[in-house]
Amino acid sequence: MMNCLIKPSALLAALTLAQTLVLSGCGGSGDEIAVPEPEKAYPDYTQVTALGGDTTTFDASSSGHGYSTPAVNLDQAQLAQHLSGDLNFETAFTTAPNEEHPELDGLGPVFNNADCNSCHQRDGRNSTPIVPAGQDRIKLGSEAGIFLRISKAPDQPCLEGTAENNYCAPTPVPNFGTQLFHRGVLKAREDWQQNLFGGQADVYLSYELKTVTYPDGTEVTLKRPLFAVENPFDAPGESLNSSNVTSELLQSDVLMGWRNGMPVFGLGLLEAIPEASILALEDEADSDGDGISGRANYVFDAVKAQRGDSHPVSLGRFGWKANTPSVRVQSLGALRGDIGITNPLFPQESIAGTSMHDSYLTRTGFVDTGSGVDGEPEASAEFSDDVVFYAETLAVPARRQVDDAKVKEGARLFEQVNCSGCHQPKFVTKSSGEIGGLPMIDALKGQTIYPFTDMLLHDMGEDLSDARPDFLASGSEWRTRPLWGIGLTQTVNPQAGFLHDGRAASVEEAILWHGGEAQASTDKFMALTQEERAQLLAFVMSL
Fold it and tell me: Where is the Cytochrome c domain (predicted)?
């Protein structure tokens, strides 16, 4: 006969199991049986660090110069050109003529800043203007990296660019153009003795506040920048409050919108994304029903026009509304526009042909015409090529803290609330071809990159609209901003803001301003717990 000796602990366990099964079978809760939680799925980019492929820098990602490193895969000749372009980027120009340093003259006659770095501080964003306590507003001056785009309201939306409709380009304000220059050289204005160093008009900035409340009761105060334009050169002292408004700038059909400077790293990689890869993400009719309907902007291409192309139109890739096609057009357009330095791509002054320019030339004896004594533009081809190359070849900073549990959870939540619906994580750059009309360098070819943008236009709602169309983009449409490097924004410049007008002081505030196609994602973000919101933000800040 078998000797059945059972330990008391084993007997107790057996009785407990039996009791559990009986209770479960008789409608008991069965809580004692643990059901394993399903394993969480994380996106494949959760722990990617080299956002810029082989161009990525791992050495400068936690410093105030985290955006200022050359792409690490440049050869010696390319590095030398990059460093030359770096010097050009920081060059501060002076009024012409400058006999001692003629290579520095040509500033203005009207402009927004005297060098590239003032709008792209340390290759990042400009400082957000602060209205001092006790003041209602401030006048933009030499420290401002923000400016106003201007244009006349179109009679009807432009659907396709042709030579007959100027390729859907914004309609210039007569005698002013499409960008408002709030600064000028000494005698830029006819009334220069009363308006020393005044530009086309004075621009004032103020803020209005509103409070957003999360479902859990947490409150966030948001600010919206407002502008006032006064004292235009064609009607000194006039404002919208004047009894008789005569200035072309102050007419009711003139549209205006703030523009902040943007970071300039990784731009060559963005231009190297195959056009087909971007267009594959278009969903203008929202065929998948997710509320997101990105579409491309098609814009005038000065490089193609200079080559004699019969249809000088290209996919828009850069600018807040994807209104420029290449780093070359963006950089040299800003050199001529923001600073007033003519160059081989834009050889005429931005205000050429206006009454202000004609008056300035007469008043100053035609010594600052936009051309040197040799008849060439103020910036040489070499200067221009080098500064463009610099902007094309700044390294993307590597991600940080990818092993942090909060960051990992944040990546999952980034997908859950569908941020990636517009902030497309991944592209592979093309393996051959041109950028900006020149053969692309090997360092940019075939790179797997994670910029977190689809490069398309999206309607972001009325709160972000400036009501000003730009080529095919409506007033409420904006290009998806790349998120790579965003976590270093305020390490590089502690006073930098986010969004096209710097209104957001943090990534959280930027999310809360998202409306339109992004409203569903904003609502989902707001519905997260405080801990989950912090996790999602930690992921974004790791980029």
Answer: 405-543
Q: Which two tokens stand for residue 32?
A: 């004692």
Q: Copy the structure tokens of residue 159.
A: 């659907």
Tens digit of pLDDT for each residue in 503-516?
999 999 999 999 99
**What is the rounded CA–CA span in Å between residue 524 and residue 25?**
40
pLDDT, greater one: 243 or 103: 243
pLDDT, one tens digit per residue, over 61-116 is 677 889 999 999 999 999 999 999 999 999 999 999 998 998 899 999 999 999 99
Q: Return d(Cα 247, Cα 234) in angstroms, integer.
A: 6
Asked, for residue 29, whether it belongs to a domain, the answer is: no
Is residue 255 within 8 A of residue 468, CB to CB? The reply is yes
What pLDDT is recorded for position 38? 75
Q: Stretch 346-363: mean pLDDT, rounded?
A: 97
Burial of 501 (0-12, 13-18, 19+ CB in 10 A): buried
Sorted by sequence, the CB contacts under 8 Å of residue 460 that are 6+ apart come out as 476, 477, 478, 514, 515, 516, 517, 518
Measured between alpha carbons, how far is 310 from 378 in angstroms, rounded to an integer?
28
Please tell me the total count of domains within the chain: 1
Q: Is the pLDDT confidence value at 28 over 50?
A: no
Helix (H) or strand (E) holding 403: none
Q: Quote the domain boundaries for residue 427.
A: 53-542
Rounded to the nearest integer, the mean pLDDT of the chain is: 93
Q: How far is residue 78's CA from residue 70's CA, in Å, rounded to a whole number?
A: 10
pTM exceeds 0.70 for this model: yes
Could you give the CA distance from residue 118 to residue 127 in angstroms, rounded to a whole number?
9
Indicate whether 63 belongs to any domain: yes
The residue-averaged pLDDT of 13-34 equals: 45
Do 91 and 98 contact (CB within 8 A), yes or no?
no
In this model, does residue 174 exceed pLDDT 90? yes
DSSP string, 221-271: EEEEEEEEEE--TTSTT--TTSSS---GGGSTTEEEEEEE----TTHHHHH
SS (H, E, C) 263-285: CCCCHHHHHCCCHHHHHCCCCCC
Q: Would you give the DSSP letter of residue 486?
A: G
Peptide bond just before 38 cis, omega within 30 deg: no
- How far is residue 297's CA from residue 280's CA, in Å, rounded to a whole number? 14
Quick one: which H or E segment has residue 434?
Answer: strand 434-435
Report the alpha-carbon distance of residue 136 to residue 395 in Å, rounded. 40
Residue 2 falls within a domain, yes or no? no
Which residue is it, tokens 């000194």? 236
- The answer to whether residue 46 scores a pLDDT higher than 60 is yes
- In-domain check, residue 39: no
Give the per-residue SS3 of 129-165: CCCCCCCCCEECCCCCCEEEEEEECCCCCCCCCCCCC
Cα angle: 492, vertex 331, 464; to 5 degrees:
65
Say if residues 159 and 297 touch (Cβ distance below 8 Å).
Answer: no
Residues 462-484 have pLDDT tens digits of: 999 999 999 999 999 999 999 99
